[in-house]
UniProtKB/TrEMBL annotation:
Alphabetized UniProt keyword annotations: Lyase
Organism from which the protein derives: Conyzicola nivalis
Coiled coil: none
Protein name listed in UniProt: Mannonate dehydratase
Gene3D superfamilies: Enolase-like C-terminal domain (3.20.20.120), Enolase-like, N-terminal domain (3.30.390.10)
Molecular function in Gene Ontology: mannonate dehydratase activity
InterPro entries xref list: D-mannonate_dehydratase-like, DgoD-like, Enolase-like_C_sf, Enolase-like_N, Enolase_C-like, Mandel_Rmase/mucon_lact_enz_CS, Mandelate_racemase_C, Mandelate_racemase_N_dom
PANTHER family assigned: D-GALACTONATE DEHYDRATASE-RELATED, STARVATION-SENSING PROTEIN RSPA
EC number annotated for this UniProt entry: 4.2.1.8
Organism lineage string: Bacteria, Bacillati, Actinomycetota, Actinomycetes, Micrococcales
Keyword Coiled coil: no
Pfam families from the UniProt entry: MR_MLE_C (PF13378), MR_MLE_N (PF02746)
Amino acid sequence: MKIIAADVIVTSPDRNFVTLKLTTDDGLTGLGDATLNGRELSVVAYLREHVVPLLIGIDAHRIEDTWQFLYRSAYWRRGPVTMAAIAAVDVALWDIKAKAAGMPLYQLLGGASRTGLLAYGHASGKSNEELFDSVREHQEQGYRAIRVQTGVPGLKSIYGIASNATFEANTGVRYDHEPAQRGARPAEEDWDTRSYLRHVPTVFEAVRNEFGPELPLLHDGHHRMTPIQAAKLGKSLEPYDLFWLEDVTPAENPEALRLVRQHTTTPLAIGEIFNTVWDYQQIIREQLIDYVRSAVTHTGGITHLKKILDYASQYQIKSGMHGPTDISPVGMAAAMHLGLAIHNFGIQEYMRHGDKTNAVFQQSFTWTDGMLHPGDTPGIGVELDVDEAGRYPYETAYLPYNRLADGTVHDW
Ligand SMILES: [Mg+2]
């Protein structure tokens, strides 16, 4: 089963997506997601210039060997561009293998370990009233677990709040929160950690008072705090029994989590910007986190993320795979198959894609009573309509960045 074609497809229905499509000499095709939000074309070039020529003629069945070949033969290992490119090849090969077997991919990964995947959505509001409405909307859509992001008094625009009027005006689509905006430069947002730390516990108190103790609540700190600030936040949120507190400190320094961990029993999640098992080695071994946030798309695909999650399972650490809208339907399907099969599944982030995106990517997954299931179509269960994709050419878009009141650039 030799690979005879490898096409990199760039499309921007509601936002930019990069997809790798592999074709074998017996007519099977497989898809892999290579979308790297705000840096999409770097992965396109990596694939087209340096990976596609190496794939033609290789045996599509040799997934592990191809992974090791692409990782080790580059010499320059790791990094988001490399690992997104390898992930796309890996998922496309798994898609092909599962189609060849006539089975949904999760069967090849060991079969289903559960009936469906608990998923959480993103509720947000500048005020508590807006936030409560957003939580209720999510509950009406079936969500049984909800991430809560709030405005902070004195700050104009901050991460996680669904007030992206520019995006909505440009696309006609209101995502729960789509931070990447089309345009030649990243948008500037403002930030003040002390105001945030004062305000957030009052919001969680209000949400618990309104919605009761049962609803699993999550929150994302988005890499902005120092270790001691993060420790303070974790401690101040303990009365509100969070499912997890995410990305409290910049992810480059895993040791920071030691200090956070010493001070709080609030569960911690991190890893959406990690891309290999080496990024997790210390924080899993020292049990500094409770959930692995990596996406299949950004962590070398199913082959590599499964190794990370198997390692995590030895320490009772669970999956919490990244699932914002920049993970394409192909990447989401891969996550669902992996999540269904592994024992240490925790929760899946799930922001629904827009109608245009769903017209480009035909999908077999189901969303029932707050639970995802990848479906039983052979492969990963996603096909790409090339003509439909061709209607939406790439448009430059960037994630925002932060400045403090005195003009200092801050972590976003
Ligand atoms: Mg995050």
